[in-house]
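QA checklist item 7 of 12: single-chain prediction sanity check.
[x] sequence parsed
[x] length recorded as 350
[x] structure emitted
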Amino acid sequence: MEDVRTWRAEAVRLIEADYNHSADTHLVPIALPRHAGITLYLKNESSHPTGSLKHRLARSLFLYALCNGWIGPNTCVIEASSGSTAVSEAYFARMLGLRFIAVVPATTAAPKIDAIRFHGGEIHAVDDPRTVYAVAQRLAAETGGHYLDQFTHAERATDWRGNNNIAESIFAQMTREEHPIPTWVVCGAGTGGTSATIGRYLRYQRHATQLCVADPLHSVFHRHYADPAITTLPEKCASCIEGIGRPRVEPSFVPTVIDRMIAVEDAVSIGAMRALSQRLGRRVGGSTGTNLVACLMLADEMVSAGEAGSIVTLLCDGGKRYDCTYYDDEWLARRAIEWRGAMDDCRAML
C-alpha cells in the first residue's frame, strides 16, 4: 500500500511539474472595425502541449482520479471521447507509464486518431457514437481499469474558485486592458465542464460578466437550456463540429450558471472558422468558428445598444487536425455544407 501511495504522490508531482514547464496560454486581441468600442479577445488554447483546450481537462481528470485513489501504477485508463480529450489523456497516461484506451466514434478525424496513437494511446472505434459510454464502461470492467468519464467528472474535477483554472487566467490577463471586466465570455459545451467552471467563477468573484454558450444547431444542450424536459436528440440528428455539442445532456452540463445560449448552424461555424483563419494567418478548428459566430452576434447587439466593452472567447484548437475535413472543400461538398457565404459575412466583420 505504501508503494502505491508513493507512486501516486510522484504521479501528482509529474503532472503539476508539467503545468510549470510553460507559461499560460496567450490572450490575443482582435479589433472589430465594424464594432466601434468593442474588442474581441481569443484565449489561445491551441498552444498547450497537446494542442487544445482539452489539455486542461485531461490534467484535472487525472489529478482528480489520482487523489480519489482510482488510478494506481498498473491501472488501464479508458475514456469515451470525440478525439481531443483522448489526445490529451493519452499524453498524461504515457507520462505516468499507464496503458490508455480511447473509445471514439468511427467518424473521428484521422489526425486526432494519429495524435492519440502518437502519445501511446490505443483506439477502440465504434460505429454508433451513442455507444461510447457503455463501451468505455465495459472495457474498464474487462481490464480492471478506470473509466475517466469526462462527461460526468468534468464539472467537478476543476477547482472553479481559482487554482489556475481558465477563468482565473482570463481575468488575470485582462487586468490592464481598456475594458478589464468583459461584458461577455463565450465558450462551447462538449462535456459542459468549461462552461461550469467559468460560470461558477463569475458568480464567486461577483463579476458583472455574463456567460454565453455557443452550441451547434444539432446539439441537445441549447434545447435543454430552453426546455429542461428535452434531454436527447432524435436519431440521426447530429452536428459535424467535433468537440462541442452532444446528442444527450451530459451530467457535467450545468445550465443554471449560463446566462445565454446561441445555436449555430454547422455551415456557419465552418465559414466563420475559415474567415478567422484568414484573419489570423493560421488555421483554427470548427468549434472556434462556432464561438466566433456567437461573439459577433453579441457585438452587434452591444453596438445597437450603444455599449462599449470587451468579449472573450476560446480558440479551442488548431486547424491542422481538420485538414482532411473542414479545410477539405471536397469533403464539405460531399456533405452539401454551404460555407462560403458565411465566410464572406464573417470576413467583412473582422
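[x] summary fact logged: The beta strands are 27-31, 38-44, 77-80, 100-105, 122-126, 146-147, 184-187, 210-216, 260-264, 309-315.
[ ] second reviewer sign-off
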